[in-house]
Design brief:
Blueprint: H1 20-26, H2 37-43, H3 50-54, E1 57-58, E2 66-67, H4 83-117, H5 128-137, H6 147-160, H7 177-186, H8 193-203, H9 212-242, E3 248-252, E4 262-267, H10 271-280, H11 284-292, E5 298-303, H12 304-314, E6 318-320, H13 325-330, E7 336-339, H14 348-352, E8 358-361, E9 372-373, H15 381-395, E10 409-413, H16 417-425, H17 433-440, E11 446-450, H18 462-472, E12 475-479, H19 481-489, H20 503-512, E13 517-519, H21 526-539, E14 551-555, H22 561-572, E15 576-579, H23 589-603, E16 607-609, H24 612-630, H25 644-651
Helix pairs in contact: 4-6, 4-8, 4-9, 4-22, 5-6, 5-9, 8-9, 9-21, 9-22, 10-12, 10-15, 18-24
Length: about 675
C-alpha cells in the first residue's frame, strides 16, 4: 500500500476520499457513526505481513506456520520446503480458490439452464441462434431438433463436463489450433472442470508436489479449466437463457437510487437471482403494494458483478462497485440489499443495522450473521423474488434521514463478442476484419483489457487514468467487472468519450459509433475476451496464435483470488498480463522470474508488475509495440503522455467527469 496516500480524517470522522459520490454520502449526517471499509483502511496501523504478501508463509501443515526466506538455509520450512516450493504452492492455491469460485458459479448456471430447458423454471431460452451455434461447437447436430430438445442436450453435455475425468473440456477447441497443440504438448489441457481444482489442492498438500515448475503447470491447467471451461460455460448459457447482450444505454453511480421509490440493490455474481427480481419488479401486484406505502414503484439497482449482469441485459442501473457496497447502504435510502455469492463484505451487515435496510441472503453457500435468509430456488424463482421485494416494500415507510448524492453517469454497455462482430460487419458480413485491418494500417495500435476488482488499498485512480492514456495512444480498451463500473463513473463508457481518443482510434470509432472503452460484462465474462482474441487470430493478418496479436491485459487493483485465476488463464493462452500494486510471488525471486520471464518462453505470454497508471501504460504500450514489430507493423507511433492539464481539457466536455470511481476512494 502507498502509505503516503492513506486516508486522512476529515470533519465528523469522515475519511478524506477522492470520489465525490462516496464523500457526499460518508460526510453527510445520515452516515454519522457508520464504519465502512474506507474507515477500516484508514484506521489500520499494521501493514500486511511481508511473508504472507510475498507468498513465503506456509500454513499447509500443523508443524508451522513457517516463515521462509529465500536463500537462507536456516529459513526453510520444518519439512525442508524452500521458498520456490512454498511460493508456488501458495500461488497455485490462490488460482484454485479463484477458479473454484467461477466453477461453482458456472455449475449453478448450467444446472439452472438444464432445469429451464426442461420447463422447470420461469426462465426461457431466449437466444435460439446462439443455442444452435453452441450445440455445433459441442459436436451436437441441431438437425430438426426442437429448441427444447436441443437445449436439454446442450445442458446435459455441459453439466457433465464439471465431473468429467478424462479427455478434454469442449470449449478448449475454440482456441487457436497452435495454442491447443501447445497445451497438449505441455500436458495442461483441462480434462474436466472440477478435477483440476481437486488435483491442484492435492498437489499442494504437505509432502506431495515439491517442484515449483510442476506445481505451476498444474496451476495453468486449473486456470484454463476456469477460463475455457466454467466461465465460458456460464457466459454462453447465460446469454442463451437471458439474451445475448446488445449495446444499451443506462446509468451508474450511487445517484441512481430514487427518493420516491423502493430501492432494492442486488449484490453478488449469479444472474438467476437478479433476473427473477427484474421479472417481478413491475408486476401489477408489486406496483399495487408500492402504492399502498406511498412509493411510485420498485427501483432495482445492481452492485458489483450482479450489477454488470443486469446492466448488460436489461439496462438496469449500477449503484456501486465492490468498494461502494457499504457506501450505498450508508445513504440510508436502500430498503433491501439482496445478496447471493462472492465479494460481499461482512461489513454490510453492521452498516445495514444503522438504518431500516433489510439485508437478505439467498444462497446456502453464503450466509451472513445478522442478515435474514430467504433461500432462492430456480423452480420457485418468481415466488421467492416477490417475497423478497414485498419485504423491501414493507421497509419503505421506515426510511429515516437519507442522502442520495447527485452523481450518476450515462454509460453504454452490452458489447458481447456477437455484438462486436455485428457492429463491425452487419448481419451478413459480420467479421473482425475491420478491427484487424485498422490494427494493420496503424489507426488502432492494439487492444488492451482492463479487468478485475477495485480495492481500498489503492488510492490512485489507476483504472481511469490508465484507460485515458491507452485510448489517447490509439489503443482500444475492453473492460469487465468492477473496473468497468469505475471507468463508467468517469464517463469513458460513452460514445462522447471518443473525443479523448487518439486520431486513429477516433476515426474508427466515429465510423462504427462505439465508445473508446467497451463494457464486456462481469468478471466471469472475461471468457468473452478469450473469444474476441481468438476471433482476431481466425480473421487473419495478425499471426497464428493469441501470443502473436497486439493484445495485452491488466488488473491494476486486483483484490480477489478470481483475478489471479483470470490472469493465469490469459497468460497460459498467450497474453501479456500486468498486475498491481502487488504480486503474490515476490517472496521468491526464482518463482517471480519464472512467472515474469520463463512463462513467456513456454506460453508466449507472461506476468508483469506495475505501480501507477503511467507505469502500466508504458509497459502495456511497449508490449503492443513489440508485437506489432514482430508482425512487421512497426510504423513509428510516439507515445502520448498526457499531463493533468491535457486531461482536464479533454474531460471538460463530458458531464460528471469530476467524479472519480469509487474503486480509487
Amino acid at each position: 500500500m502507498d502509505t503516503s496516500k492513506r486516508f486522512k480524517k476529515g470533519n465528523s470522522g469522515c475519511p478524506s476520499i477522492q470520489c465525490e459520490a462516496n464523500r457526499e454520502v460518508l460526510c453527510n449526517e445520515c452516515a454519522s457513526g457508520v464504519v465502512t471499509a474506507a474507515h477500516r483502511v484508514q484506521n489500520r496501523s499494521v501493514e500486511p505481513c511481508l511473508f504472507g504478501k510475498g507468498g513465503t508463509c506456509c500454513r499447509n501443515c500443523n508443524m508451522g506456520p513457517c516463515q521462509i526466506i529465500e536463500g537462507v538455509d536456516a529459513m526453510v520450512g520444518i519439512c525442508g520446503a524452500d521458498a520456490p516450493t512454498v511460493v508456488a504452492r501458495n500461488f497455485a492455491r490462490i488460482v484454485a480458490g479463484g477458479a473454484a469460485a467461477h466453477m461453482d458459479h458456472g455449475r449453478g448456471v448450467a444446472l439452472a439452464f438444464l432445469e429451464t430447458a426442461k420447463g422447470e423454471t420461469p426462465y426461457e431460452i431466449k437466444d435460439g441462434i446462439k443455442l444452435r451455434e453452441t450445440a455445433l461447437r459441442l459436436g451436437i447436430d441441431p438437425g430438426e431438433k426442437s429448441k427444447t430438445d436441443l437445449a436439454i442436450e446442450v445442458g446435459e453435455k455441459l453439466v457433465s463436463e464439471f465431473g468429467q475425468q478424462e479427455g478434454a473440456i469442449s470449449f478448449i477447441k475454440r482456441a487457436p489450433q497452435p495454442r491447443q497443440e501447445l497445451w497438449q504438448k505441455l500436458g495442461v489441457t483441462p480434462r474436466g472442470v472440477d478435477r483440476e481444482v481437486v488435483e491442484m489442492m492435492h498437489r499442494t498438500h504437505m509432502g506431495v508436489d515439491q517442484n515449483y515448475k510442476n506445481i505451476l503447470l498444474q496451476a495453468a491447467r486449473c486456470a484454463l479449466a476456469d477460463g475455457w471451461g466454467a466461465s465460458m460455460i456460464a457466459t454462453e448459457l447465460s446469454d442463451i437463457m437471458f439474451g445475448t447482450p446488445v449495446p444499451i444505454r443506462t446509468k451508474v453511480n450511487i445517484g441512481v437510487l430514487k427518493k420516491d421509490e423502493v430501492n432494492v440493490t442486488v449484490h453478488g455474481h449469479e444472474p438467476v437471482l437478479a433476473e427473477a427480481l427484474a421479472m417481478v419488479a413491475n408486476d401489477p401486484e408489486i406496483v399495487a403494494e408500492c402504492k399502498k406505502v406511498g412509493a411510485k414503484g420498485v427501483n432495482l439497482a445492481g452492485v458489483c458483478c450482479t450489477g454488470n449482469e443486469i446492466l448488460m441485459r436489461r439496462g438496469l442501473p449500477i449503484a456501486g462497485s465492490f468498494v461502494q457496497q457499504e457506501v450505498v447502504l450508508a445513504t440510508g435510502a436502500v430498503e433491501a440489499m439482496v445478496v447471493d455469492v462472492q465479494c460481499i463484505m461482512q461489513g454490510v451487515s453492521p452498516v445495514s443495522k444503522n438504518y431500516h435496510t433489510q439485508l437478505i441472503t439467498t444462497s446456502e453457500k453464503a450466509k451472513i450473521t445478522g442478515a435474514k435468509h430467504v433461500q432462492f430456488h430456480e423452480d420457485k424463482a418468481l415466488d421467492v423474488a416477490k417475497e423478497i421485494i414485498k419485504m423491501a416494500i414493507a421497509k419503505f415507510p421506515e426510511r429515516g434521514k437519507y442522502c442520495i448524492p447527485r452523481h450518476e453517469m450515462d454509460v453504454v454497455a452490452g458489447f458481447s463478442h456477437e455484438t462486436i462482430n455485428y457492429i463491425l460487419g452487419g448481419r451478413f458480413r459480420a467479421s473482425y476484419k475491420p478491427l484487424n485491418d485498422n490494427i494493420i494500417n496503424g489507426r488502432i495500435r492494439g487492444v488492451a483489457a482492463i479487468v478485475g476488482c477495485d480495492n481500498y488499498r489503492v488510492m490512485d485512480e489507476v483504472h481511469v487514468e490508465l484507460a485515458k492514456e491507452l485510448i489517447a495512444n490509439d489503443v482500444l480498451v475492453l473492460v469487465t467487472g468492477c473496473a468497468a463500473t469505475g471507468i463508467g463513473r468517469a464517463g469513458l463508457l460513452s460514445p462522447e468519450a471518443m473525443e479523448m481518443a487518439g486520431d486513429g482510434l477516433k476515426e474508427v470509432l466515429e465510423a462504427v459509433g462505439c465508445p473508446p472503452v467497451l463494457h464486456m460484462g462481469s468478471c466471469v465474462d472475461n471468457s468473452r475476451l478469450l473469444i474476441a482474441a481468438t476471433e482476431m487470430v481466425h480473421t487473419g493478418g495478425l499471426g497464428n496464435d493469441i501470443s502473436d496479436i497486439p493484445v495485452v491485459g491488466c488488473a491494476p487493483q486486483w483484490m480477489s483470488e478470481k483475478a489471479v485465476s483470470i490472469g493465469q488463464y490469459f497468460v497460459s493462452s498467450g497474453a501479456y498480463v500486468v498486475f498491481g500494486p502487488s504480486f503474490p510471488t515476490t517472496g521468491s525471486q526464482v518463482v517471480t522470474d519464472f512467472c515474469f520471464k520463463q512463462m513467456n518462453d513456454i506460453y508466449g505470454g507472461c506476468w508483469d508488475l506495475a505501480q501507477g497508471a503511467n507505469e502500466f501504460a508504458d509497459k502495456m504500450i511497449d508490449k503492443i509495440n513489440e508485437r506489432r514489430k514482430a508482425l512487421g507493423l512497426d510504423k513509428k507511433k510516439e507515445r502520448v503522455l498526457f499531463d493533468m492539464a491535457m486531461r482536464r481539457e479533454l474531460g471538460s466536455g463530458i458531464p460528471g467527469m469530476g467524479c472519480s470511481p469509487g474503486g480509487h476512494s
